[in-house]
Design a protein that fits this description.
Helix content: 25-40%
Shape: elongated
Strand content: 15-25%
Distance between the termini: 98 Å
Number of domains: 2
Length: 216
């Protein structure tokens, strides 16, 4: 609580008021979490150093996250409370959205009309939402296999423990791409309501025309 009262510098307004207190290799550390929308970065301040009260590392992060103009404007405030109540709610990075798209350098402005490649498109999937997590293709594949295995085990257990009659049916059809499929399904009563679910679906490798002898 004593440290919280001492954290009245304007730079503290850009972080959560109460930091985490942890130990790193036996050293006490205060972890400050950035308040910027979508930013999950944290800044560590070690308490066993001579410059434990220094805000240099906090300032460096705020400049990279909020912009140098925001830091300069916050320095004119009296304390952190004034920044939180009067300045932070209206801040955008570098003061305005136009500054974020301002031309950097003095070169000629050019525009590319070439379509994005698959690799370039991946970098745009989280545009505006950097806090989103996009799993890789292998992760999605593993999750799908896991869900499928768990579902099979649950259905198997339910059918084995079912105390009643079950009807098994088959159906076959040809898809628009001329591939033939056969499905096996089960029909039963579950909690007083009819329930039907497919158990397996297979693709017929080859369909041979059925010929009937003339003398038959």
């Amino acid at each position: 609580e004593k440290n919280v009262r001492d954290w009245n510098a304007p730079i503290y307004a850009f972080f959560e008021p109460v930091p985490w207190v942890i130990e790193v290799e036996g050293r006490p550390v205060h972890v400050f979490k950035c308040n910027a929308h979508g930013c999950k970065a944290t800044v560590r301040c070690y308490m066993d150093t001579k410059d434990a009260g220094s805000t240099g590392n906090l300032c460096r992060h705020v400049k990279s996250c909020w912009g140098s103009e925001v830091v300069s404007a916050a320095d004119d405030a009296r304390n952190a409370d004034e920044v939180r109540t009067k300045m932070c709610p209206g801040f955008l990075k570098d003061g305005s959205i136009t500054a974020a798209f301002e031309q950097k350098g003095k070169g000629k402005v050019t525009y590319s009309h070439r379509p994005h490649t698959c690799q370039e498109t991946k970098s745009l999937m989280r545009t505006g939402r950097p806090e989103y997590y996009l799993p890789s293709c292998s992760t999605v594949s593993q999750d799908v296999h896991l869900v499928f295995a768990c579902t099979c085990n649950r259905i198997t257990k339910m059918l084995r423990e079912y105390n009643g009659k079950m009807n098994f049916t088959t159906d076959a059809w040809t898809a628009p791409n001329h591939r033939a499929f056969i499905v096996f399904s089960v029909h039963l009563e579950h909690e007083g309501k009819p329930l039907a679910m497919p158990l397996d679906i297979i693709e017929v490798a080859k369909v041979s025309p059925c010929t009937v002898p003339r003398n038959a």
